[in-house]
Amino acid sequence: MRIVVKVGTSTLAHSTGCLNIRHIEELCKVLSDIKNAGHEIILVSSGAIGMGMGKLSLKEKPQDMPTKQAAAAVGQCELMYAYDKLFSEYNHTVAQILLTGLDLEDPTRYHNIKNTMNRLLELGVLPIINENDTVNTDEISVGDNDTLGAIVTVSMHADLLVLLSDIDGLYTADPHKDKDARLLSEITDITPEIEALGGKSGSSLGTGGMATKLSAAKRCVMRGADVVIANGSSPAVLYDIIDGKKVGTRFLAKKG
Questions:
Q1: Cβ atoms of residues 156 and 117 within 8 Å
Q2: pLDDT tens, residue by residue, 135-160
Q3: How far apart are CA 60 and CA 97, in angstroms?
Q4: SS3 167
Q5: Distance CA 84, CA 195 (A)
Q6: 39 compared with 254, residue with greater pLDDT
Q7: What phi and psi values does residue 249 have, to the nearest 5 degrees?
Q8: pLDDT tens digits along 158-193
Q9: How far apart are CA 132 and CA 98, in angstroms?
Q10: Under a CB-based contact definition with an 8 Å cutoff, are residues 19 and 78 in contact?
Q11: Per DSSP, what are the bridge partners of residue 99?
């Protein structure tokens, strides 16, 4: 299988913005093991701004663009250093790819990106993709890494997109407010009623909420890829997801 795993800031960093060492170590170990089993992995990783906040001792997420970009520049170094170190312990080589909306809209750039990623996979490298927050403005931004994960999944003809964040999946209502809220384990059709369950919530460090995940799922299932939304607090859930077990919410691809 070719699998795209998107990991949210809440999985990689504590609320302080500092690296969650336990989570990132387990994530790299599990992904390395899955790769050893013969699967191709593409990691779409959030966390640059959050980690930059921790490194720069910023107490809350910056609101102005220059400070966001400065935090991203500092945090991206920290993020890739951690990934390179941890994956190297399991004899896996990683590559960093930073993208903007313009890269994905321009046909020549888009073609070159796909060629690069395909060659990296052929060479046994694990691509790590993030939006280029250092140069992004609203005009050239993809917007969030759920959307970026879906774009990568479709363009690379992946079989599965896994969206790991701080939520267990899609519920019938907000589980924080409704004790009768029920987790939807499998969805075969993303109807307007399902989309209405998305809401607008997201973590204080991240940019995506359930609405962006549903939009990403809709984009992928129409192009033949399953999507799973699951809690990233224990990356070992990836084993069960790949085995097809009931974890989080799985959106089934449209076949044919």
A1: yes
A2: 766 544 566 889 999 999 999 999 99
A3: 27
A4: coil
A5: 37
A6: 39
A7: -120, 125
A8: 999 999 988 889 988 877 788 888 999 999 998 888
A9: 5
A10: yes
A11: 131
pLDDT band at 202 (very low <50, low <70, confident <90, very high): very low
Segments in 89-209 forming alpha helices (H) = 101-105, 107-122, 145-155, 192-196
Query: How many angstroms separate the CA atoms of 186 and 189, rounded?
Result: 9
Per DSSP, the three-state class of 252 is coil
What tokens does 223 get? 């192009």
Give the C-alpha separation, 104 to 141, whole Å. Answer: 10
CB 51 within 8 A of CB 75: yes
| Alpha-carbon span 149 to 160, nearest angstrom | 10
End-to-end Cα separation, the chain, in angstroms: 18
What is the predicted pLDDT for the residue at 143?
A: 63
DSSP string, 182-199: -B--EES---HHHHHTT-
How do beta strands 126-131 and 40-45 pair?
parallel
Note the pTM of the prediction, 2 decimals: 0.89
CB 158 within 8 A of CB 127: no
Instruction: State the sign of the Cα–Cα–Cα–Cα dihedral 34, 219, 184, 22.
Output: positive
How far apart (Å, rounded) are the C-alpha atoms in residues 132 and 204?
20
